[in-house]
Amino acid sequence: MPENQHEDPFEDRFAAALRDTGHSFRTDDPAALVGRGEVRGRRKQLLRRTAVLGGMTGVALVGVGATLLLTPDVHDPRRTSAAAGPAATTSPSAASPSPAEPFTGDDILRSLKELLPQGTYKEEQAQGTDSLMPPYAHVVFDDGRGAAALGLSFGRVEPGSEQARQRATCPDKALVKYDDCTTAKLPDGSRLALFQGYEYADQRADTKRWYAELLTPEGHHVLLTEWNAPAEKGAPVSRPQPPLSVEQLKEVVTADVWPRVVDSMPSRGDRSATGEAPSPGTRDKTIGDTLAGLLPRELNIVGEGGQESEYAYLVVDDGKGGSLVQINVQPGMSDMAGVLFEDAEELADGRLVTTRQSPGEEGAEGVVMWTVDTLRPDGLRVVISAFNTPAQHQDATRDTPALTMEQLREIALSTVWDAGA
Amino acid sequence: MGQQRSADYAEFASARAGHLYRSACLLTAGDTHLAEDLVQETFGRLYVRWGRVSRAENPAAYAQTVLTRTFLAHRRLRSSRERATDTFPDLPGAADGDAPLRLTLMAALARLPAKDRAVVVLRYWEDRSVEQTADVLNVSSAAVRTRCVRALGRLRELLGEDLHEFSRP
Lengths: 421, 169
Description:
The complex is a heterodimer. Chain A is α+β, with helices and mostly antiparallel strands.
């Protein structure tokens, strides 16, 4: 227990609960963590040396170095999604403003079971709408052909918002590998996405993840996900396919009862995934447009996406194949100066610049990620990364990204961003 | 890295892996795969700086600092590999013991801003002082206190004053 904090009994209870919870996590294979960490360390060392060489003798050597480097010594499978935590966002102005009778966790489980085919259930967990936490249900369902995890979650999305545009859509094929995904407009104006893909982008395990995602015009968001294993991650597959067909997924997710569950969620003004304030208002011009305007003319833009107020990506081609370029533009990051710009170069006007050349984040073979990270004195951080592949989960398709470190630096330091691009 | 240093590094990393992983699970609010990723990245960074780390007064604390900073750097950036969906936190042994408590606690942690979560983990899991926490996060002690008060207030709101009610099903 930290000092001078014993006055508050909640604090003591919380600290004890946190310790209990922390100790309940066990890694299956600590040696693998150490081993893979060492592999990363060796790569980092090599990249550092390579970058130094490149700095002395020109960019071409960096390319050679990167090619040498990425003869993969160890396959380093990586996770797929960084999203953490329960239901992402709700807004007080979305969906019904007046909470209806709350649903208990048992109510939700019962409704779910009524909609599922005959089978048995284990590991039932649910959260009702009588709590500040977002409602959900989770069961391990077995129709006789193998136990399968099944999850149902709910949220509210403000109609017309960026989130509403993103929900119940198919992920970009450049980013997520999947077998099939369709979206459809239902007669009531709802949008439905039916997705058949995998738990892991790199398919390091055969775990399939299928889901049906519904977004009503009023902003009710319902997500039903199923796996062909008794757990999302870390359990061997128990059957070739998840138990429900896409037709059955559709039937369950579009049941009348679920919008009522969402309506009965308490409205909360400050319920956001991170709890942090939303980024500054919508700009007329998107980050992606601005980025496109800063690219060298010889590059063709062959793909784009992820348009958000602070983030965008483009896929560019200089004639040698697609190269993913992603950018984050984040105001109010002064407090990260010490963390992220510890060894940064400081320009005369106070701007900080760091550069990194590292392996890609998805563990695909031969992928390099070249990054220039900048921080203005006013706290605006612009960080741009380019890859030698059109999609992070795809193996490298070219020796180096389509932009040089110098070009990335020019883009990141452009004064266009200061104008609130 | 020479053979002896390499052996020292391996011994240190093996001894710390379990604890760093548990810390990472709390920082990521139960996202065990992200936690694995962060621990590997932390070990990668420690490997590169092993000379400095091994001479540090407290290499274990240094490792924790690297983990926390790696986490914050990660959480602050959107990447093309992410896609926002409603997801459940990966929960440890959900079927046993205090599963409802863990579930609720992880969900509540997930609702904190990344930096507040880091403050909470450093203070209540790592038992760091306000000053030590400030040092890890490169902020003032006052900023740590503010974040801590805010985070506890939010957790109290989410978990209820009497946490015991969650402690048994």
